[in-house]
TrEMBL record:
Species: Pseudarthrobacter psychrotolerans
Membrane-crossing residue ranges in chain numbering: 37-67, 96-120, 132-156, 185-211, 232-257, 292-311
Keywords: Cell membrane, Membrane, Transmembrane, Transmembrane helix, Transport
Family: Belongs to the binding-protein-dependent transport system permease family.
Coarse class of the protein's main subcellular location: membrane
Full protein name: ABC transporter permease subunit
Length: 321
């Protein structure tokens, strides 16, 4: 006798109908759309200003580098003649060499000073003093470079400068700061670093504040104390900040103009003449805008090449947490 087991069918789940978009959903979508348009409205002045005052002049300078133009006569296409003349000009070559030497010395001094002061202020100073030093070190950066250079020119004057007066009190004879190649180069570098190291200092302060204290505590358990903790902990974890600071410092130093122009006018001789000074003299003193544009294009390519090399090397030397 067979027993038939009745089959139990699973109850069918009712399919919920898709609800049409409610007014609240429509309002949310329209709100996001309006916020997107509002963002573009706020960004428009910046984008427009950057296009008009940065991208357009760069494009015009690249085009003008292939022409000979003195404002008075019509532009004449000369191809790469401007670049050939610029490369063969000894003044231009000396100015680029001076610029490279200036970048190496000034940037090394600037980053080293900023990092040392940042470590000292971050570790040794209370919070209210840290705030004071942030403002004090950043203050020179907001001053006019031309005004600062004029003031420094009087300070380092050989005859009545305050610096030589203090040296005379110590029995040291007057130093011809601005009339010798070595002295003038040292003053230009000193003034530039004094006015610009505050920005690197702020970057390093921010980078040091982002390093967790637990990392230092773990390193201390392994015996990394004193200067060793900075070598094995601070410098590796600070490498992204160091990359940013070095990139911005090098780009700024390659375009140095105010300090050497106001302090020394590029002299004595051509000892402190920089690439941007030659661009200024070619364009606004000799009215050779084609050659000035060619020098500007070469300088831009150098800046791009150095920046690209820094980011390529960063893959090996920069460590992210």
């Amino acid at each position: 006798m067979s027993t038939t087991i009745p089959r139990r069918d699973r109850p069918k789940q009712a399919v919920k109908p898709v609800k049409p978009a409610t007014p609240a959903t429509s309002q949310t979508a329209s709100g996001r759309h309006s916020q997107r348009w509002l963002a573009w409205i706020f960004l428009a002045p910046t984008i427009l200003g950057m296009g008009l005052f940065t991208l357009v002049p760069i494009a015009a300078s690249v085009v003008l580098a292939f022409f000979r133009w003195d404002i008075i006569s019509a532009p004449t296409f000369v191809g790469f003649d401007n670049f050939a003349e610029v490369v063969q000009d000894p003044t231009v070559r000396v100015s680029f060499l001076n610029t490279i030497v200036f970048v190496i010395v000034a940037v090394s001094f600037q980053l080293g000073l900023a990092l040392a002061l940042a470590v000292m202020v971050q570790e040794k100073m209370p919070s209210w003093l840290r705030t004071f030093f942030r403002s004090a070190f950043f203050f020179p950066l907001i001053l006019s470079a031309a005004s600062v250079s004029i003031f420094m020119r009087y300070l380092f004057n050989e005859q009545f400068g305050v610096v030589n007066w203090f040296l005379s009190l110590a029995g040291i004879p007057s130093v011809p700061w601005l009339t010798t190649p070595g002295g003038s180069a040292a003053v230009v570098i000193l003034v530039y670093v004094w006015q610009n190291f505050g920005f690197s200092f702020l970057l390093f302060i921010g980078g040091l504040a982002s390093i967790p204290m637990e990392t230092y505590e773990a390193a201390a358990l392994d015996g990394a104390t004193g200067w060793r903790k900075h070598v094995y902990v601070t410098l590796p974890l600070l490498s992204p900040t160091t990359l940013l600071a070095s990139v911005m410092a090098i780009i700024s130093a390659l375009q140095v103009f105010d300090q050497p122009y106001v302090l020394t006018r590029g002299g004595p001789g051509d000892s402190t003449r920089t690439a941007v000074m030659v661009i200024f003299e070619s364009a606004f003193q000799r009215l050779e805008f084609g050659e000035a544009s060619a020098i500007g294009v070469i300088l831009t390519l150098i800046i791009m090449a150095i920046t690209a090399a820094q980011f390529r090397l960063s893959k090996r030397f920069v460590f992210y947490q």
